[in-house]
Amino acid sequence: xxxxxxxxxxxxxxxxxxxxxxxxxxxxxxxxxxxxxxxxxxxxxxxxxxxxxxxxxxxxxxxxxxxxxxxxxxxxxxxxxxxxxxxxxxxxxxxxxxxxxxxxxxxxxxxxxxxxxxxxxxxxxxxxxxxxxxxxxxxxxxxxxxxxxxxxxxxxxxxxxxxxxxxxxxxxxxxxxxxxxxxxxxxxxxxxxxxxxxxxxxxxxxxxxxxxxxxxxxxxxxxxxxxxxxxxxxxxxxxxxxxxxxxxxxxxxxxxxxxxxxxxxxxxxxxxxxxxxxxxxxxxxxxxxxxxxxxxxxxxxxxxxxxxxxxxxxxxxxxxxxxxxxxxxxxxxxxxxxxxxxxx
Length: 344
Prior knowledge:
The protein has helices spanning 20-30, 47-57, 79-89, 109-121, 134-148, 173-185, 236-244, 252-272, 288-300, 322-329; strands at 6-13, 34-38, 60-65, 94-99, 126-128, 155-156, 210-221, 224-235, 249-250, 280-286, 304-306, 318-320. With 344 residues, the protein is an alpha/beta fold. The strands form three sheets. Strands 1, 2, 3, 4, 5 and 6 form a six-stranded mixed sheet that branches. The chain has a three-stranded antiparallel sheet with strand order 8-7-10. α2 (47-57) packs parallel to α3 and α7 (236-244) crosses α8. The termini are far apart.
């Protein structure tokens, strides 16, 4: 497997004072591959702020669940738990390593519940037993993540091109480390106190603009059922109206259902243009890839934010932001980027 020539910022989500040899093995693996930041102890007053800034700035997140849930904050959750929620809210590509415990191992209730929740919601989990397993796991997992979730940032490895992406000037590796640290802290002054709230409209959306999605449906024609796949153009205003119609808080499944209903209102005439004898259309579903992309764009534009918070996360719940609601109240498209957004 070829080694990427670009170095990324990876934030390591972990419990404080746990699995130190595993963390050392991670550091050794990424020494020439990435710039790393780590969660710090919840005992530090600025631990949550630091973790949030690191996740905001990072290209990828790596979570290591070992023997400890970590030190709980006043809210009852650990920094590892908070960072996990932040990474999910920001839709960061997340690589998860979980330690295999022996049947007689003593595991805390909090760690057990947290691990179960993470496993249920993850597409892929990589398991390890000791620090000796880390390198072989990461060789496979890291390069697969980079290939599947390409990001538009990162530093070119010195000696290969001597240029940073996005027309950044040539830098030495030492300077790149300094720039990486700067990247982590550059938004410190504009952070909203709510750790699950987007800081600003990073990628504004114009309501009248259209975008294309793929969907599947079942068409009924003369007693026969046909599976069809079509593309459809939607406007962002249609999406926003669909979101406003659903409950104040909604799951990712609720978001999918809302978009499917929107697609269904237009799918039948769309399909009948090519299949005029169709008498009914059902089971309209946006493609999963397009739904994931749509959700990332909604988060980036600060239209939706994650509201799940607590020691028992059974479901990720989202809600419309004050900013998104205001777009339709004003009845005009806007791409303005307010400096500070009020909490909802």
